[in-house]
Amino acid sequence: MTATGALSASDAADARAHARTVAFRSGSSFLLGMRILPRQRRDAMYAIYAFCREVDDIADGAGTIEQKLAALLAWREEIERLYRDRPTRPTSRALLDAVHAFDLPKDEFLAVIDGMEMDAREAMVAPDRAAFALYCRRVAGAVGCLSIRAFGSHGPAAEELAVVLGDALQITNVLRDLDEDAAQGRLYLPAELLEDAGIPPGPPESVLDHPGLGEVCAALAQEARERFARSAQLIAACERSSVRPAILMMQIYRLLLDRLEGRGWAAPRRPVRVSRIQKAWIAARHGLF
Q1: Among 33, 39, 43, 242, which is least packed, fewest CB within 10 Å?
Q2: Which domains are delineated in the chain?
Q3: pLDDT of residue 208
Q4: Does residue 268 have a cis peptide bond before it, meaning omega lies within 30 degrees of 0?
Q5: Other CB atoms closer than 10 Å to residue 27's CB: what's the count?
Q6: What is the pLDDT of residue 9?
Q7: Close Cβ partners of 241 (under 8 Å, ≥ 6 residues apart)
Q8: Could you tell me if 103 and 165 are in contact, meaning their C-beta atoms sit under 8 angstroms apart?
Q9: pTM of the complete model beyond 0.85
Q10: Cβ distance 220 to 168 under 8 Å?
Q11: What are the pLDDT digits (tens) for 18-53?
Q12: What pLDDT, on the 0 to 100 scale, is given for residue 5?
């Protein structure tokens, strides 16, 4: 670090390499969207993703509630140091240039940590609508608000897109990961939808075995589709070159949702994925390369 808090060239290169390694190690669906960006914006997205990956690993990892909350508190303190130009961790050092270059909002980093705390405090089971919406805003909308700036898109349509598309992606993730989440004692399906389908409160496994599950999942899938439709309208109101990663992710997740609905919701639920080749085909089809 220099006296002004800027990283030396070698430190900055090491930090970027760290963030890139974290991103590529994950094998995330978001990687292709990052890779179609210009270098500085791509590096910013790798750093944002590395931050999200590291705090998510705290919430999902081993340890007591107290240990997880302490680790997340340490990240809160690190975000404060980042915005004073004094980051101490490889990932926050990788974020330093992005924060300045793209005016990334500190509150959105803190919102992501808030979302991780919701998972860390106790296993979430059938949250009410308000808690579900808040969770989606924190773990997905906040990431969208950071990402849209790194993409280079600005204005009211871009800001709404960040949140609406984040909701659509997160709802799709919830539907994709029903069994994986249940194995961790979690169930993100909203309580009101379960009640409407006549599913009584209970552990995740019993809810997923209930014959009314399909009704719940179909209703939630429809909500995702409505958000995808709104996202498409908002994308049309943005400069296309600045939302190429958003277009790619929307199309990949729409296909994922199609396949989930085609598979159905009754057990046994085979895993559903979109392959790398299919993702590349989607990018080529929509002229995103």
Answers
A1: 39
A2: 7-103 (1.10.600.10), 123-277 (1.10.600.10)
A3: 97
A4: yes
A5: 8
A6: 84
A7: 152
A8: no
A9: yes
A10: no
A11: 999 988 887 666 777 788 889 999 999 999 999 999
A12: 56
Task: Give pLDDT tens digits for 261-279.
Answer: 999 999 999 999 998 888 8
Q: Find how far residue 277's CA is from the centre of its chain.
A: 22
**3-class DSSP string for 79-133:** HHHHCCCCCCCHHHHHHHHHHHHHCCCHHHHHHHHHHHHHHHHCCCECCCHHHHH
Q: Which residue, among 225, 188, 209, 203, has the nearest Cα to 265 in the 3D structure?
A: 209
For 30-91, give the DSSP string: THHHHHTS-HHHHHHHHHHHHHHHHHHHHHHSSS-HHHHHHHHHHHHHHHHHHTTT---SHH
Per-residue pLDDT reduced to its tens digit, 76-109: 999 999 999 999 999 999 999 999 999 999 999 9
Distance CA 286, CA 243 (A): 12
Instruction: Give the per-residue pLDDT at 1.
Output: 46
Residue that is written with structure tokens 């915005």 in the block: 83
Tell me, what amino acid is at 44?
Answer: A
Average pLDDT over residues 125-129: 97
SS3 15: helix
Rg, C-alpha atoms of the chain: 19
DSSP state of 221: H
| Residue (of 102, 108, 85, 90) closest to 40 by Cα position | 102
Q: Can you tell me the distance from the alpha carbon of 172 to that of 20, in angstroms, rounded to the nearest whole number?
A: 26
DSSP bridge pairs for 125: 187
- Reduced to 3 states (helix: H, G, I; strand: E, B; else coil), residue 5 is coil
Give the Cα separation of 163 and 145 in Å (integer): 7
C-alpha closest to that of 138 among 163, 168, 172, 174:
163
